[in-house]
C-alpha cells in the first residue's frame, strides 16, 4: 500500500478523481429481435443501479443473464448491439455527454489487449503515446509509468516481455494488472472491467481485485466489474453487488447486506458457504428440468427484490441524486480529459510499436523471410543457369510465372500476424484511441521495408541462379515488379482478413483469390484466347497479370535466343519456333515471344500505374471494411 499511497499524493495526485461523485442508471432495458422466432426478445428489463466514488460494484449473474450486455450499455459501447436500448445514465446526477463520457472512462476487455513482443514498460509507454496529448511532457509520462509499475507490483517485471506463443513472458495475473494499468494511464474516473479474473486461479484473482480495490480507494475511482463466480475472499473485496437473472434484477445493493436480505427472502446463506456461489446457484436456471417450477422460482426472486426496502432505497437515492444540484466537471479537468494525442503522434507511435513487434515476433516477418529464401533457393536450383536458347524459352516463361505467382501466394503467411494486429486495433478503437486510417497507414508503412528486403533477397538468389537477362537494369526492374507483387498480395490479405477475421476462412479466401489470379493472369491461357467472361471481369483487375507482363517484357524485350540449326541444311538455315527478322542469324528476337502473348514493350509505365491503382483499391476497400466493422 505504500506505493499506492505515494501515488495518491504529491506529484501523481492527478490520477485522483476530484470531480465525479457518483454514477447511476435507471430503467435500463435492452430488446433485440430473436432470429428464430422473429419476435422481440428482452435481454435486460428495468435495471437500476448506483455507485459512488471510491466504490467497487460486482456485476454478477449466471451465463445468459445479461451482465455483459449491461456492462457494454453502461460503458456506452453499444455500436455492435443491434438492439433497442432504453433507460438513462447519470454522472453527478445529469446525463453525460457521450464524448466526455468516453474520455473520463476506461474499459478493460476480458481478453488482454497486449502485444506479446513488447516489454511491460514499453506497453505502458505506448499507452501514454497513444492516449495522452503532446502537452504532457516526457518527464511526466515517465513518472506516470514508473508510478503505475510500482502501484501494480510490476516494477520487477518492467523489462520482461509480455509473452508470445513461442516465448514465455509474465504470468496471467500480471497481464491482467498490466491491462488495468494501461487503462489508468489516461487518468479515467470510471473503470469498467469485463471478467477481470477470467482464466485466473483464486490466488491470482484475489491479487488482481486487491490491486484494483486499492487503486480505487486511494484515488476515489468508480469501478464496475462483471465477474462470474469469485471466491469468498475476492467477493468480499466488492462494496456493492448487482445480481441479474434472465435480464432482471435479483439484488442490487451493498455486499454487507446480502446475508440479511436473502435470509429475509426465505433463502438464508449457509454459514460456511461462499455467498457468491450460493446466490449464483439460487438464480441459475440452466440445469433445471421443471420449466414451470423454474419460472415460478424466478418470479418470486424478482418480485421479492421489487418489493424490498433496498429496491425502494435505490430508487430514492437515484431520484435524490438527479433532483439535487448537479455538479459539472471543472474547467481544468475538462481541459485535461478533452485533449487527446494528435493524429501524427498516434501514427508515429503505431509505426514504432509495429516495427518493434515485427522484428521481435518471428511469426510476423521472420518466418516469411525464411520461407521466401527457401523458395528462392529451390527456384534457382530447379531453373539452374538456363542458357538463352529456344529450348529454354518456355522454361524461362515458367520460371517468371512461378516467381511472381508463388511469391504472391505465400503472402498467406501474413494472415496470423495481421489478425493479431486487427484484434488489438478493434479493442483500442473501442477505447477511442485511433481509427482505421491510422491503423492501416502504420500497417502499410511498417510492411514496406520488410517487403522490399524480401524482394531483394529473393532476387539476389533466384534471378542470377536462373540466369535471367544479365543486366543491372533488368535485375532492378525484376525487383520492382516483385516488390509491387508482394505489396499487392499483402494488400489482398489485409482486405480479406479484415472482411472475415477468422484464420481458416481468411486462409481459404486468400488461397482461392490467388488461384483465380493465376488462372486469369495470362500464363495458363493467353489473354487473347481467354474466355470473354474471365478476361473482361477478372483479367484486367488481376495484379498478377501485370506483374507477369512486366517480368516477361523485362526478360524478352531486350534479349535474343539462339535457334536450332536444321539437320542436313546449309549455313544460315535454322529451325526457329518464333519467327523474327533475326531468323537468318539463327536467333530469335525476344519481342517475337512477347507478340505471341500479345504484349508490347512500351506499356510498362501504364502497367505500373494500374498495379498501384489495384493496391490503393485493396487498401481503400480494407479501410471501408474496418470502418464499418467494429468487431
UniProtKB/TrEMBL annotation:
Residues annotated as domain ABC transporter: 15-271
KW Transmembrane (keyword) present: yes
InterPro entries reported for this sequence: AAA+_ATPase, ABC2_TM, ABC_transporter-like_ATP-bd, ABC_transporter-like_CS, ABCG_dom, P-loop_NTPase, Plant_ABCG
Gene3D superfamilies associated with the record: P-loop containing nucleotide triphosphate hydrolases (3.40.50.300)
Keyword Transmembrane listed: yes
GO molecular function, one term: ABC-type transporter activity
Transmembrane segments: 362-384, 396-419, 440-466, 478-496, 503-525, 607-628
A cellular component annotation (GO) from this entry: membrane
Protein's UniProt name: ABC transporter
